[in-house]
Amino acid sequence: EMTSSLVGSEMCIRDRNVLINGFEETLYMSDVKIKDIYAGKPDAKDEIEAEGMGPFIKSFILPPNFNVDALLDGTYYFITGYKGIGKTALLYYLDNCAKEKDPTAWSSFIFFKGDYSDAKRQELERLSKRLLSSMSIGSDIVLDGDDFEYIWRWLFYQRIIADNNFCEEKLFVDNIDWKKFKECIEKIAVKNRNKLFIPPKLKFSLSGIDVPTQTELSQDFELDFSQQKCSDTEAYRAFTSAIDKADSLIEKVERTDVPYYIFVDELEAYYGNQKIFYRDLRLIRDLIFTVKKLNSVFSSYDNFRKTKIICSVRTEILNSINRFIVTKELNKVTSGFEVPVVWDYNNTNSFSHPVLKILTKRIAMAEEDHGVKHSEKELIAQWFPETIRGIEPANYILNNSWNKPRDIVRFILSAQGCLSSGDDAFTQSSCEKFWKKYSVESLNEIKEEMRALYSSEQIDEIVSCLMGFRAVFRFEELQARTRSLFKNTIWTDNELPILRDLYRLGFIGNYSSVSKLYRWQHHGDEGLIISDDWEIMIHKALQSALSVSKRHDAGIQRIQTTSPFKKIVKFEVEKISENRVLLGNIYYDQYMSNAYMKLSQQPVSFIQKYGRANQLLIGMTFNVLVGPYDEVHHRWLVSISE
Question: Contacts from 291-298 at CB under 8 Å and sequence distance 24+?
Fold first, then answer.
C-alpha cells in the first residue's frame, strides 16, 4: 500500500506497510535510489583521493578479528590477506586512529607500485648487481644472486630524513647523534622533495667512511648507476660501508614524543616478463626483510618509542615468492608479526555478517542524507525482498561473494552502472539487471589476482577451458576436456596444480552432492579435495560470466541418464585388475574420462579370455561400446564391442 505526503519543506515521502518480526508496520521512506548510495572505489587509495577521508571513515567497518592496538602500539607490523580484503583501507584507518589518539602524530606512505616505476625498479636491479659484485665472504668469494636489503635500508633512511625535514624536525632530537646519522646518509642520498627517489648517479664522499682502500681514490667521486657495469669495486664497498655505519648510528639517535609511522603498501608483481617478475619478487622479499630489521631496531631501543613501519602484504605475492624464487626463510619473518585480515563469520549468513554491515551502513548513510533514519530491521525490510531466487537475500549476496569489502563495492557499483540504478530497493528484478555485470567484474578481479602466478596468455587458456564447461564437475571430466580440446596449453599435465591455485584464489571450491556441503578457501577450508565424494565447483559469482550453471549441468545429466545414447570409441588398455580394466582414451569424447570403468557386460569372461591368457593385451586397442551413464557412481558403463 503506497501513499504520498509532505514532510519538512518539499521532501517527497512515501510509506509502505511491511511485515517485521511477524507484525505489520508502516515504513516512512525517503526518495532514495540505488544511485544515491555511497559506493566508494574498489581501491581505498583512489577512494580517499576522489572522495576524501571523511566519507571513507564514516563508511568504514573494522574486521571483527582486527587488533588496531597490536599494530600501532604492539609488536606486530605486517597486515596480510588476499587482494580486495581491505589491506589498504586498514592502513588509512590505522593512520586516522593514530592521529585521533595523538594529533601530533606524523605518518608517511610508501606505495611500491606507485613510487617505483618499472624504470626505477631496473635501476634498483642494476645497483643490486653491482653491489654484490663487490661484496665477498671469506677469501673474496662473490655472493651469487641479487640482494636489495642494503638499497632498501638506504631508501628508508632517506625517507626518515625527508619526513623529519618536512615536519620541521619534530621527529628527532637535533643533537650530535642525529647530525652524524644525517651526514652519513646525505653523503650518498639525493633529495627529491618528499618522495623516494632512485637517481641515475650518486655522489659519494669517502670522508668519515672507513673503507680499506687498495687503489687511490679522490675524496669525492661519482657512481653512474645507469651503466650496466662498473669496475670501481671500492666505490661499492664505500656504499655498503656507509649503510653499515648508518645502521650503527641510527641506534643512537633520540626520538621526540611525536608518534611516527611509515605505511608501506601496493607490493605488486605480475607474471609478464619472467625476468622482471622475478626481480620484482626479490625486491618485495627484501623489502619485507628490511621492514622486519628496522622494526626490530626500533623496538629494541627506548630512543625509538612510538616508531614503526607497518607493511601490507598480499597472500598471493607471498605464495609467488615461495614458488618462484629463493625465499630466505621469508615465512619466519612474517608469521610471528602478522595480523591477517579475516572477514569470515561462520556463525551467521544473515545481515549481521560484518561484510553485509558495510552494505547496510552505506545505505543508511544515503538515507540520512535524505533526512530519514530507519532502524536496521526497518532498513533491511525496505531495501531487500524476502528471497532472491528462492534464497534469503543476505545468504544470496554472501554466496555470490568472497566475504571481502571489495565485493560490496563491486555490488553497489554494478547496480549503479545498470538500469537498476533508479530502483529504490535491491529486489530480485533489480538484481537480475546488474548480476551479469557483477559477475564479469568479479571474473576480472580474479584474473588480476592470477597475474601473480601466470602470464596473460596462460590466464586466457585457463579461463577459456572453464568457459561454457560445467558449474560442477569431476576431476576426470576436466582431464578429458583439457586433453581433447586444450592440448599444448598450460593445462597440459598441469590440471591438478592449476586447480589448486584456482582454489586458493577462490575461483573454484568443493561441493558434495551427498552431504550438500561446500568448501571454500575464504571460509577457512584449506586445500582442494580431489575424490569421488567431492566434486569441483566454480564460484557462483563467476558462473554467469563463464556461461555455466547448475541448471545447464542438470540438463546435460538428464540427457545422459535418459537417452539410450551409446557410442563406440577406440580405447587402449593400460592396466588389468581382477574385474576392471584401465582404458585410456585414444579418441576423446567430452563425456569420456581416463579412469577405471566397470565392464557392464561379461566382465569375468573378458578377463579370462584376454587378460589372464595373454598379458600382451596391455597396449592393444579395442572398440568399446560406451553407455548408458551410471548416475550413482558418476561414470559411463562400458562393454567390449566384439
Answer: 291/77, 291/78, 291/264, 292/77, 292/333, 292/337, 293/149, 293/153, 294/153, 294/156, 295/77, 295/337, 297/247, 297/250, 297/251
Q: Taking residues 553-566, what's their average pLDDT? A: 64
pLDDT, one tens digit per residue, over 5-25 is 333 333 333 445 454 455 455
What is the CB neighbour count within 10 angstroms for residue 69?
Answer: 10
133 or 634, which is more confident? 634
pLDDT score for 544: 95
Q: How far apart (Å, rounded) are the C-alpha atoms in residues 220 and 81?
A: 46
The residue whose grid cell reads 515521502 is: 13
Q: What is the 3-state secondary structure (H, E, C) of 323-376?
A: HHCCCCCHHHHHHCCEEECCCCCCCCCCCCCHHHHHHHHHHHHHHHHCCCCCCH
Assign 583 to helix, strand or coil.
strand
Burial of 226 (0-12, 13-18, 19+ CB in 10 A): exposed
pLDDT band at 554 (very low <50, low <70, confident <90, very high): confident
Q: Is 17 helix (H, G, I), strand (E, B) or coil?
A: strand
Alpha-carbon torsion (86, 89, 94, 97), positive or negative: negative
**DSSP state letter for 486:** -
Q: How does the average pLDDT of the chain come out, rounded?
A: 77
pTM: 0.74
